[in-house]
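Record type: monomer structure entry
Structure origin: computed from sequence
Chain ID: A
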Amino acid sequence: MSIQAVLFDFDGTLADTLPLSFRAFQAVFKQYDNREVTRDELVAMFGPTEEGIIGGNFTDQASVPQAIEDYYSIYKQGHFEEFQNNEHILGLLQALKAQGMKLGVITGKSRRAYQISAGALDLERFFDLSITGDDVAKPKPDPEGIHSALRTLGIEPSQAIFVGDSNADILAGKAAGMQTYAVRWLPTFQSQAYDLAPDGILENVAEFQRLLQLNNIIPMTYHSKQQAADIKALEQQCSQADSIQLSSDLEHLVKEDGDHALLCYREDQLIGLLSWFAAGGNEAQINAMVHPGYRREGVFRSLVARAGQDIAPLGIHKLSYKIPGGSETGHRTASALGARFSRSEYAMSYDSLTTLKPVPEDLHLLPATLADWEFIISCSSQAFGESEKETREYFTETDEPERVTYIAWTGSERIGLIRVNYINEDTAFIHNFCILPSCQGKGVGEKVLRQTLGLLLQKPYPVIRLSVVTENVRALNLYIRAGFKINSEYRYYSGSLNLEP
């Protein structure tokens, strides 16, 4: 039966809070009970909550209430002075959530202490529930807390794993009938020996990821030659398996300010890629591919869920999935995520063997200046039927040094615009090509396109690309007459960040 939930202890398992807890206990025992207590003595007291440890072991009971308050004060302050999240633990929790795992915390800490730590370390967002020492009558090694969590989650013991760093954790997990693993992946942990043998002892987070065959999703480093090579290999593997030419748009990923990309590794093999960029307004365009040997394992869903964590804070709520026309797997996946078909486009490239017609002299292209800003907004809004607000946001977001807007002039009159994204020394991408509606139907668009090609071929740019909506027959014919050819078709599906099950 597949694993559907992972339950964790907290101290020494998810956060290296034990040294701070020891120090806070030692301080209040020294101040209020005039006792020097060692770490071993404190570990022997563990089981009850912090209040229980102080109240159950103080000789001077009158000082217990103030000692408890001072303990929490020291404990809380320590988080701001010395604590940082463990990046490996964060990566593990993100990977588990991305694959749809239910996650819970079973800790002997009081609710108050747990909220201090989980809040300061921003860990609460990962967990579906938390069972603290305040929520049970019998602390670990009794399995009461684990049983309570399983009932709440609706999960059988055989469908879950318990992870902890102490002998009491192992005893509790085994008593609950669960696979139970001891961890020693943080600098401070409680137990070196166990009364019952755990199902495994994990020295680092990577061992647990391998155990569960978890995907390791990381942001791409634009200058990494190894990652670029991995992406090219994945592109070839997917293209061969699907019998279509797929593109990772690698040229956009290896630029410092290029598209965002997430890489999904299983062990050392790249098994999934997702790239995205803000497509204007509140939409992000998604391009992805999954290794044919790892499909139907939630890789794509994991990548989308992870990307959502980066996209949502930007105020983007919609996703547009870019899928090759011949990829039936891609279309089924988009539909399964609740996305709906919106449009299809042809990807086209200029045929270098085409003889360029003479560049017209009655029309000129000049790089846009600040004085052209309002014209750009108005012209594009009219031509594409979008609001000026959306158009203004889009041009503001895509105002980049390598993306140049040219204004088409006839005499002293501005009649249109065209943009060129100079992707690299070899490749230029034409986009946002539009003519004022009042000037359309007069052959002006063809002149602007020829002027643009003449400009690019002077550089020269061996690769000149553009895309066109398949239903826009007029524009398609214009591009074909100018010397462009269709390379492939892509279909776009619109969805939201809230993935449907």
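Annotation 1: The first helix runs from residue 18 to 33.
Annotation 2: DSSP finds 17 helices and 18 strands in the chain.
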